[in-house]
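Morning. Coffee machine broken again, so started the prediction first thing and wrote up yesterday's gels while waiting. Chain of 323 residues, entered below exactly as on the submission form.
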Amino acid sequence: MSAVHHPAALARTDMAFFLETLFGGLMVGMLYSLIALGFVLIYKASGVFNFAQGAMVLFAALAMARFYEWIPKWLGFDNKILANVLAFAGAVLVMIAVAWIVERLVLRHLVNQEHITLLMATLGITYFLEGFGQTLFGSDIYKIDVGMPKDPIFVLDTLFPGGVLINKEDLYAAAVAAVLVALLALFFQKTATGRALRAVADDHQAAQSIGIPLGRIWIIVWSVAGFVALVAGVIWGSKLGVQFSLSLVALKALPVVILGGLTSVPGAIVGGLIIGVGEKLSEIYIGPMLGGGIEIWFAYVLALLFLLFRPQGLFGEKIIDRV
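Came back before lunch.
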């Protein structure tokens, strides 16, 4: 006897599929938000869009993956947890060293220069990190295994037949990203260093005149951005493997900061969630009608629309120049 599908059961199944897509988009969106925070951090401290953030994600992930291989051989032990902890600590030190070098060799020589000059400097840093990363760590595809469970789980099975499928790894990654985003938001709003960062972004000379050490602030903010890049690189590396296309994945955060606003931490969060959910839902529900591929360009088209009609983003400050 063939099974008879009740319309209500079919509706619940459709709703379960929609929720799976929605949850998947929210989790990816949190990772986009995490990477976008790196852009916001640098912009708040220097007033320039940091094109090197994607390369920083790649460089940090390469450091983590290679240290995980090298440290047990150097120290002669075979403990995965200890290897991960030491590899992560080593990668943090590497990103702090990158921040110090960037400030010493680049930023301190460009104080009070035009923003286009600083922008070109970040492009130079991008290509240096990608090339030096390949020289230092190699160009193969490397694995990062920090122990995040990869098995799917089913939730809301009492409401929907079969439940809603959620990937455990995505759930853990989204939770880590959410905690880090919250801590960074508190850092900006509640600490003296966070207030100093905002002052430096507004006016370098004014910040220096009231005793804010510009060089130290820039080292701090690039170190924090490097740490954010490392966490994002570890999560994406665990999902996709550490490869040079990772820097392109990180650039998906560009539309996020355009959507949310270059100066807004909450904007980075909301923008990431909107783009993460939007690209997943559009690919599933609109993609079949247009031949697919919407997930690739959805974020950039949405960002273009915002540039046309609200260039400051959802939470950015509107700047009006009168001539």
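Residues 7-46 form the longest helix (40 residues). Going to sketch it on the whiteboard this afternoon.
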